[in-house]
Amino acid sequence: MEISGKVAIVTGAGAGIGAALARGLVAAGARVVLADLDAGAAAQVAESLGAAAVAVGGDVADEQVIRGLIERAAAEFGPVDLYFANAGIGGGAGLDSTDAQWAAALEVNVLAHVRAARLLVPEWLSRGSGYFVSTASAAGLLTQLGSAPYAVSKHAAVGFAEWLSVTYGDKGIRVSCVCPMGVDTQLLHSGLGATEHSAEAELAIKAVTTAGKVLSPDEAAEVVLAGVDAEHFLILPHPEVLKMYRYKGSDYDRWIDGMRRFQAALLGN
Question: Which residues are catalytic?
Fold first, then answer.
């Protein structure tokens, strides 16, 4: 995928990986619509990128907001070539997570991707090209200690990206699924949505920060854009995740036992 000259939408682009992706895309010659629930943050990033970027505020799990993003991109720059479904939330801790927290995690981390694909894929099929990039997480391949809604919704995000690629990959549509471990973002420092200063929040933070290097958003975005350029399905800013995933698949019971021991060590048990 040659990025130069393409039109992209990036959700969750007010900060973190999304903002870094927008910067990288513009630097590579793309024109970008930045979307974020925090309209002011998205606007600030867009202003720093000049005429090649515009910002739109809104909840990107809302189908009407997604439709508006696509229409704004078409009006400003032309038809959408790439969609980066990057916005994500935590959603709570364990079994005490409320139905509302579960629903929010599934809405933003999964159904926002489904709704975007529903709107984009028919046009991409008629054009014979299009690229959908899902920001999931290593939690979607492994799991996430301290946050059940995050772990489950990210597994679902990986599953949807797989289905999308298998179903439409022979029809000109490319799909990538991004599965990083720790990236220096507010989501990480908040404990993935667990109650602030709670044991679950501390566990979630420790589980990520002790598993490998915490990357900057720019470092993660550089790997993502290189993966898109190469049209890789699975993009791993932390390459060691592949080794962990293979270990999990080779002996599931042993892997679960290892994760229990890891959790106990983090909790000081």
Answer: 150
